[in-house]
Specification:
It is a single chain. By secondary structure, this protein is of the alpha+beta class. It is built from 16 helices and 15 strands. It is globular, with a radius of gyration of 23 Å. β4 and β5 (179-180) form a beta hairpin. It has an eight-stranded mixed sheet with strand order 6-8-7-14-15-11-9-10, sandwiched between helices. α4 runs antiparallel to α5.
């Protein structure tokens, strides 16, 4: 279901087109419009191409927005990606962008006039923001999240909000308010979560850019399953205030949460990263983010680590084949490839990740519920594997400090690895998109890897490598299964080497098959 405050998009688009057609070309040029009709599929072009057309004034923001709205109207009902549409607000913002460019000849910012959608976990002033929770069904923020404010300042036109699981707490996307978001490649498969709506919107051409959030792979898993690019930036370089959860009004976020861009290619990731990477408003008077340039300029210069499989989280035959093809591609291009050295132990790293994740999630637990967790934890021996969740969730501050020290030691091992390797490539997930299991309670869910039933949360074990140690990690489409489902790899880089990660993705993309586009992409 899409919430609207306007008449049907298609009718408005037709009216707008008719109005343009009846206006003399000279008058359209004086008003900042295009002298000839814009490309009918410009809304499906990369963001940087759309922005180029907007700045050259070969298309107006309003005309591009109408294309986008028409595509959403035509395509979204079968996907459930966009759940709240603000066509009136978007038209007002687009018209304002066009007037500004006509009057000054200068764009508003890096995203001048570009229509985009936003994950329904990011508070957006004046626009209902629910995070998929019935408790927030009427929540209309009076303040933008810090990241949303940066997008507006850069000139973005916010079209609407995209779907998430309840409070972003699932690896697939469904909630009681808006229902399920479907994978655009196969409706029986999950779109992933929690950024399932954003990933589907980008994959299906409903937007060229999105901002997702990532604590336990919530940004990268949906990107892998939907065949798009996503970057979890280095920890701390993108402000997170205004992301739900935490609850509306909280000033702090999880120390493991990161917001990052989703796009259909690496160059557009870099474009949006430039907008997102910034100090918090309180630090902005004295600090700035100046990410280093890529370490290397050509693929043959890279020293690449390759981690193709691991006994702790085996991948399936399709993913092993993908990793072998990527290894062969790198070697044929002349890159130095090391497929034996490991920066950390996958099992030990994942256990620490889980402990820290369960601990940070306890911040907003109700007092009574948390007291029950403490009592239950006291009844389970500290070394009992079944007590990992409860003991982590209720750990004393002293125990957290020691776990945090262990995390810093782990970061040191990664830094040592990256002294001799530029990047590490791993699987993004054990398989391509798995079956959607919305109707199955979480304890009964599972995935199947080469015919073997495995735990549901094994989907993110490879993604968890980067999540607690602040490393930039990018997921990109690199192949497909025989059934046409996207297969993805993950690229992990040194702390603050975000541009190196993005640059290698771009180099790889030029040598890999073109990503598979879902039927919904062209409507």
């Amino acid at each position: 279901m899409i919430l609207r405050r306007t008449l049907i998009v298609a009718c408005t688009a037709v009216a707008a087109a008719a109005a343009m057609a009846s206006t003399p070309a000279a008058a359209r040029n004086r008003a900042g419009g295009a002298s000839r009709p814009p490309r009918a599929d410009l809304h499906l072009a990369p963001a940087r191409e759309q922005l180029g057309a907007l700045r050259r004034r070969t298309v107006t923001s309003r005309a591009l927005l109408e294309q986008t709205l028409a595509h959403i109207d035509r395509t979204n009902p079968g996907l459930g990606a966009v759940v709240t549409l603000d066509a009136d607000g978007a038209r007002a913002a687009a018209d304002a962008a066009d007037r500004h460019l006509a009057a000054t000849g200068k764009p508003l910012g890096a995203l001048h006039g570009l229509p985009i959608t936003l994950k329904d976990a990011l508070e957006t002033k004046g626009l209902r923001t629910t995070c998929g929770s019935p408790d927030l069904s009427d929540h209309v923020p009076d303040r933008d999240a810090d990241t949303v404010a940066r997008l507006r300042a850069a000139g973005a036109v916010i079209v609407g909000k995209t779907n998430v699981p309840v409070m972003c707490q699932d690896l697939q996307t469904s909630n009681p308010l808006f229902g399920r978001t479907r994978n655009p490649h196969d409706a029986a498969k999950t779109a992933g979560g929690s950024s399932g709506g954003p990933a589907v919107a980008v994959a299906a051409g409903l937007t060229s850019l999105e901002v997702g959030s990532d604590l336990a792979g919530s940004l990268r898993l949906p990107a892998a399953y939907c065949g798009v690019y996503a970057l979890r930036p280095s920890g701390g370089i993108v402000p997170t205030r205004g992301h739900i959860p935490r609850p509306p009004g909280w000033l702090t976020s999880s120390d493991m949460l990161t917001l990052g861009p989703i796009a259909r290619d690496a160059e557009d990731l870099d474009l949006l990263l430039d907008v997102l990477a910034a100090p918090s408003p309180a630090d902005a008077p004295a600090w700035r983010i100046d990410l280093p340039a890529p370490r290397r300029s050509r693929l043959p210069e890279y020293r690449v680590g390759l981690w193709q499989d691991d006994p702790y989280c085996h991948v399936d035959a399709d993913t092993r084949g993908l990793m072998e093809r990527v290894a062969a591609l790198l070697r044929s291009a002349g890159a130095t490839v090391d497929d034996t050295t490991r920066p950390v132990d996958l099992a030990g790293s994942d256990r620490l990740f889980q402990r820290l994740m369960y601990a940070t999630a306890s911040a907003t637990a109700p007092d009574a519920g948390f007291a029950e967790d403490v009592a239950a934890a006291d009844k389970i021996p500290a070394d009992d594997p079944a007590g990992l969740f409860l003991h982590s969730r209720t750990m004393r501050h002293r125990d957290w400090l020691r776990a945090n020290e262990e995390r810093e030691e782990l970061r040191g091992r990664w830094a040592g690895y990256f002294a001799t390797h530029d990047l590490l490539i791993t699987p993004a997930a054990p398989t391509a998109a798995v079956d959607d299991q919305t109707d199955t309670p979480v304890p009964g869910r599972y995935i199947t890897v080469d015919g073997v039933r495995r735990p549901y949360f094994d989907q993110t074990a490879w993604l968890n490598l980067a999540g607690h140690v602040s490393l930039p990690a990018l997921v990109m489409p690199a192949g497909r299964t025989a059934e046409g489902l996207p297969l993805a790899v993950q690229i992990i880089g040194p702390y603050l080497a975000d541009r190196t990660v993005v640059a290698l993705a771009g180099q790889l993309a030029r040598r890999l098959p073109d990503p598979v586009r879902p039927p919904a992409f062209t409507g």
